[in-house]
Design goal:
single chain, 2 domains, 8-stranded mixed sheet, 4-stranded antiparallel sheet, 13 helices, 16 strands, 29% helix, globular, binds iron/sulfur cluster
Length: 402
C-alpha cells in the first residue's frame, strides 16, 4: 500500500506565511528544486542530506543542489557497495548508505557536562552551550523514519529523557523521499517499515522521472512543513501524478533485495539460544562493530571521564560503543560475553526479540546496512533462516496442555 492517498488538488500555495494545507499534494519542477533549499534556509534550518564522499553516499551539509548525488546510484550486496552512474539525473536515485540520521540526534561523541572544583569538597556543574541549530533532514527514507521513531522511544520515550536528544528532536524537520528503487540488501517490506512513507514526516517528496519528465510530487505532512513551502513555486498535483508516485514506490517494493520471515521470531530466537548457528556465525564474525555503527537504531554508548592533571576540572563525554566490543560487557568479575558467538547472539536476539519486550517493537527496520557494511558479508536474514532451519521440530503432542 502506498503512502500517497487521496489526491488533493488545492489552492495555489499561499504567500501569506502559512503555506499550503497539511495533507495536500503539489508538484515542484526539478529546475525549481533550489527554491526549496532556499526556503528551508530562510526558515532557519541547516540542511543536511545525501552527498557523495569517499566513494559512498553519506549525509553532510547541503548548500546547493550541486551537493546532492545527482545522477548517482549505488549497488549493494553482502559486504559490497559501489557507486555507479545512472542514465538519468535523479537527485535521490540511490538507497541508504553507511550513514544514518542518528549521527545528528545521537552524535558519535558528545560533551555532556564539565565539573569544576570550587573548594575542597564542592564542584560546580556546567553544560556546554547549546551547539545544535534547527536542522532539516533532506532525503529521509521510510525505513529511516521508522528508525527515528525507534530511537525517539529509546531516548525520550521513557521515564529518563535524554536532554540533548530531546532538544535536537524538537528542532528537526523531516523532508522524506520515497524510494523509487530498492537496494540489494533492503528488506523493509518484511519489517513493515517501507518503502512507502506513511507518517512521521513534515514534507514528503517522490521523484518523478518518467518519459523525460523530472518533477517532485510534494506531500505536506505538518504545519511546519507547510510553512516552509510558503513562496516555493508549486502547482497542484493531479490524480495521475499521485498514481505515478505510487507506481514508483510499488516498483521499489517488488525489487527488495532480501526478505526475512518474522513469523514468531521473538520465540524462535529466544528458544534457540544454544543453536549451533551461533557458533557458526561467531567463527565468521570479526567483532569489528561495523554493523552496530551503521545501524540506524543501535544506541549502545559509553561515558568517559576526562579529568585535567590538576584534578580541578573534569569533563564527561559520551561516545558510541558496541555490544561487539569485549569491554562493553565487562562487569566486576570480567566480561559476561567473552566469545564472539555470545556477542553476535546478544546483538541479534536484542535487535529482533528482546527489543519487543523493552521498547514494544522490533529493533530492526530492514535497511540492510549491517549486511552491506559487514566486511565478511554476514547477513542477518540468512542467519535467522539458518536458526529456523536448525530449530528442533516440535514432537508429537507438543503445544498441548500440560
Ligand atoms: S539490524 Fe541491520 S537491517 Fe536492521 S536496522 Fe540495523 S542495520 Fe538495518
Ligand atoms: S557481524 Fe560483520 S559487521 Fe558485525 S561485528 Fe561481525 S564482522 Fe563486524
Amino acid at each position: 500500500m502506498s503512502g500517497l492517498r487521496n489526491a488533493h488538488v488545492g489552492d495555489p500555495p499561499s504567500h501569506g506565511g502559512m503555506g499550503p494545507a497539511v495533507g495536500s499534494r503539489w508538484l515542484l519542477a526539478r529546475d525549481e528544486f533550489p527554491s526549496l533549499l532556499d526556503a528551508l534556509r530562510r526558515a532557519g534550518y541547516r540542511i543536511v542530506g545525501p552527498t557523495v564522499r569517499d566513494g559512498a553516499i553519506v549525509y553532510g551539509s547541503i548548500r546547493s543542489v550541486a551537493d546532492l548525488p545527482e545522477g548517482w546510484t549505488d549497488r549493494q550486496s553482502a559486504g559490497a557497495y559501489r557507486l555507479e552512474r545512472r542514465p538519468d539525473r535523479a537527485l535521490f536515485g540511490y538507497n541508504v548508505g553507511p550513514h544514518s540520521w542518528k549521527k545528528y540526534l545521537f552524535p558519535p561523541r558528545e560533551h555532556l557536562f564539565t565539573l569544576r572544583r570550587t573548594d575542597a569538597a564542592k564542584f560546580e556543574v556546567s553544560v556546554p552551550e547549546d551547539p545544535d541549530p534547527p536542522m532539516a533532514y533532506l532525503g529521509v527514507r521510510a525505513c529511516e523514519i521508522a528508525a527515528l521513531n525507534i530511537q525517539d522511544r529509546v531516548f525520550v520515550g521513557g521515564a529518563a529523557v535524554d536532554p540533548g536528544y530531546a532538544r535536537r528532536k524538537a528542532r528537526r524537520l523531516v523532508v522524506a523521499v520515497q524510494c523509487g528503487q530498492a537496494g540489494g540488501t533492503c528488506f523493509c517490506v518484511s519489517m513493515g517499515t517501507g518503502p512507502a512513507v506513511r507518517d512521521g514526516f513534515d514534507l514528503s517528496l517522490t521523484e518523478l522521472l518518467d518519459e523525460g519528465r523530472h518533477e517532485f510530487l510534494v506531500e505536506i505532512g505538518t504545519a511546519d512543513g507547510a510553512r516552509v513551502l510558503d513562496g516555493v513555486p508549486l502547482r497542484p498535483a493531479e490524480p495521475s501524478d499521485v498514481r505515478a508516485g505510487e507506481a514508483r514506490v510499488a516498483d521499489a517494493a517488488r525489487a527488495m533485495g532480501r526478505a526475512m520471515d518474522t513469523e514468531g521470531i521473538h520465540d524462535l530466537l529466544l528458544g534457540n539460544l544454544e543453536s549451533p548457528v551461533w557458533d557458526d556465525v561467531g567463527r565468521r564474525c570479526l567483532a569489528c562493530t561495523n554493523c552496530t555503527l551503521a545501524c540506524p537504531t543501535c544506541f549502545c554508548h559509553s561515558t568517559e571521564e576526562v579529568p585535567d592533571l590538576s584534578a580541578e576540572r573534569d569533563e564527561r563525554w559520551r561516545r558510541w560503543d558496541s555490544c561487539f566490543n569485549l569491554a562493553f560487557s565487562e562487569l566486576h568479575t570480567g566480561s559476561v560475553r567473552s566469545t564472539t558467538p555470545a556477542r553476535y547472539r546478544q546483538w541479534l536476539t536484542h535487535k529482533l526479540a528482546t527489543w519487543f519486550d523493552q521498547f514494544g517493537s522490533s529493533g530492526c527496520v530492514g535497511c540492510g546496512r549491517c549486511i552491506t557494511w559487514c566486511p565478511v558479508g554476514i547477513d542477518l536474514t540468512a542467519e535467522v533462516r539458518a536458526i529456523r532451519a536448525a530449530a528442533p521440530r516440535p514432537g508429537p503432542g507438543a503445544g498441548g496442555t500440560a
